[in-house]
Prior knowledge:
Oligomer: single chain
Strand order of the largest sheet: 5-6-12-8-7-13-14
Shape: globular
Structural class: mainly beta
Number of helices: 1
Distance between the termini: 39 Å
Number of strands: 14
Amino acid sequence: xxxxxxxxxxxxxxxxxxxxAVLAVxxxxxxxxxxxxxxxxxxxxxxVPGQVSVKVSDIDLAITDAVAHLDASGNGTLTMTIRxxxxxxxxxxxxxxxxxxxxxxxxxxxxxTGMMTEAxxxxxxxxxxxxxxxxxxxxxxxxxxxxxxxxxxxLALQFGVARLVHLTAKVAAR
Length: 174
């Protein structure tokens, strides 16, 4: 396994540390993962459940139709479409939920865009990836808590280049 000198351990350890930081942000509902010199991501429609648009450096992402399909135990899936409108490949590395929950990422079989790589779900330049259904990548939830009275679920999506993106998903009964 490749060493990650910035963390002092393996690349897997580095991803685990990043995941823990993201989960802490979701649990507290504040902060972001950017370094002080990184440009602050700009997003539009942050108050519209199910969608967010992010523009930072060379990244142009749009997340639409985000719906958490949950049963009474908090188990289920997340459906959404992510459009990578930039010329830079991007990866979705993790989906964090309230109370230190986390979605499990599953890559699309036999596809380049949407497949699971060491960095996460691949989002090729100038492409759209739909999560959910039978052929696309998926996010699976287990025992998720934190659904609001407005039937929404705050999520934190960790990307390789765009970093941490906050999204409020609509919640539908499964």
